[in-house]
Amino acid sequence: MLDLPQDPVPATGPDPERLAREHAQASTGAALVDRSAAGKLALTGAEARAFLTGQVTADVEALTPGHGTYAALLTPKGKIVADLRILALPGAGEDDGELLLLCERSGLQALFDHLRRHLIGYAAELHKRTLQTGLLSLAGPRALGVLDGAARELPGDEHAAVRAEIDGVPALLVRTDVGVDLLPDAARTDELRAALEARGAVAVSEEALEILRVERGRPRLHHEMDEGVMPAEVGIVERAVSFTKGCYVGQETVARLHWRGRPNRHLRGLELDRPVPVGSPILEDGRELGRVTTSVVSPVRGPIALALVRREVEPGATVVLRPAEGGPTTARVVALPFGPADGSDGDGPAPVTA
Q1: pLDDT for 173-211, tens place per residue?
Q2: Domain presence at residue 10
Q3: Please, are residues 103 and 39 in contact by the beta-carbon 8 Å criterion?
Q4: What is the CATH number of the domain that holds 333?
Q5: What is the extent of the structural domain holding 329?
């Protein structure tokens, strides 16, 4: 088994005023969240790239140092075991550089077990990095401004990576869809956090970034994705799947669905009349059309949710939910990401700028 830190003690309950402040910070400023408990592994060796390309959906062999990709590990039937970011670390040759794998903590053990089991016969080694490396997420349009000169060499594409020092603390900087992740040595995480806050970053809760995730319509492992869900159903094919590389686990099913069929379900957004718990069924004439996978209350949009629903449920439809308590309620189905709350044109938070 992997040596993992313990889960943080949950808060007694969300504070709407606090969440509103934190959400505003993540949407307009620079919000800071400690995600050091996230899963981290490394692959090294001459055949590390070839090995990993044959296991996950993305083309790892195509990566150049300082760049990365999003990918998924699938079952032989094309269902999602784990999703991950794969980073070809900068400062090394293309053939012998280290690959850093970042994943949800809930998917770490399955990913580790799969890679270790299939490494036999390859000139590659798998290393644990979860406890050795911290992870601080900067989210918001002012994220790069907080980093100032340290981010000047960071390429503009998502998952790009560069090594830098923040007020004397070395860290790997990785561009994300909402900002920058910083990975220092675990022993210097607190020092780096203090430096970022001194530069203007404001610490927020994981709950605030979870609301942002839902608004952007990004699926999450063991919420929208698990071993009963295919990549096409949650809309990650464009981000995670290569159709030009060689074989990988689950490839046949993913390719067949992409070229010859269409998924029976889609990930949609729900604008709710009132909050409902995760797992609430969506019913029509006694037939289940889907279930809520994540439910939050957005400070700007009110109660919203993500749900996997049958493909015939189109955006604009009104559906009935029947949670276990509180009686039935209705929701409007919307395409993802959620549009701006003020009705203007837009696509979520402002872009990340320096």
Answers
A1: 999 999 999 999 999 999 999 999 999 999 999 999 999
A2: no
A3: yes
A4: 2.40.30.110
A5: 264-339
